[in-house]
């Protein structure tokens, strides 16, 4: 046994030569190289992708705060993930059916051991890739809270929600939890990431409260060109989001990437067509929403369906969330009561649920056999493929898809509500109305754009007008 414990095996080398510790016999360098690339692509979706998207999609006075919420969450999730949350999500201690015990993820010989699941990559790669998923989930949730949440409440919310909500979904569906052992299908996070972020964001928005009346009625994006740039990071980064799910540079990875972009393009064009038919305008913001719903919908099925099914899913993801956002939302008193500035509930919860159901409908048995260990838990067949005498198995799979969605939704409502109630005992969830009139300058003492004179602000910053600061620090 060398410095890497019993995780490595000796190579067949001449006597007297030691094996390279950087290349144990279980390591596949191609798989590991792709997985690190995929993890970086998922990270780029958040930083800078969602930073740019959020900072551009809100009113000018909220550009800094919205972008900073995403940046803070990315850093805070990484720290919490390594220290305790990763082991709660993917530990092998079977502490409970819903999460494992908190533990330091770097305790496994500095993460140079082989990752769980039989993948040919180090544990460190697995930890970082799953961190990128956890981070983007929390940042997506933030979209429901833009334009009014107290940043100090957000500082507390991020680690609490990661610990008590995200880890439960990840463990029960992806690791050794209740639904994983029963064969639920979620290729890359339709339930764990998107349904949970959409439901949790909507729930948190209820507890935080709405924006001020003027902002709810008039909330234009401050820079549509930059918004498109952020959306581009999101779209292209999804190659790593779904393409990395097999943890190998294999056929399913290639299929997942093709299906992802095929579904997304179809969804965008479907949403755009509906906008043009109903509103007689080709909305840029609408096209971005259609892009997002396509990406979300295909995620739980990306490497498990054929391209024709991905195209059909794109049509549904471009039309059903369009209806819930553009028609149902405006008619429903319930939706009107909760302030969801950029429609995260529709683009992520509705589209994620739709994708999970379509996974149970169109999951191809051959692809399911390639992705899942059917000896541990039978997955599928998709209901569409079950008319060859396996109809009861297809119905069972649909039952698990529906039950998993219900569990994720209910757990996120309960956990998010309890977290918000707890934080409210410490600090206000919502900024004061006077501060909401000002925006970034009230929250951070900074503004996103210099608008006046020689790079001066239109209104002096509260922070830097402090007479006790040196003169060169004052505006």
Automatic annotation (TrEMBL):
Family matches, as Pfam families: Ammonium_transp
Question: SUPFAM superfamilies in the record, alphabetically?
Answer: Ammonium transporter
Main site of residence?
Answer: membrane
**Membrane-spanning ranges:** 34-55, 62-84, 120-142, 151-171, 191-212, 224-241, 247-272, 284-302, 308-329, 341-362, 402-427
Q: Does the keyword Transmembrane apply?
A: yes
Q: How does it sit in the membrane?
A: Multi-pass membrane protein
Recorded family membership: Belongs to the ammonia transporter channel (TC 1.A.11.2) family.
Name under which the protein is recorded = Ammonium transporter
Organism the protein comes from: Coptis chinensis
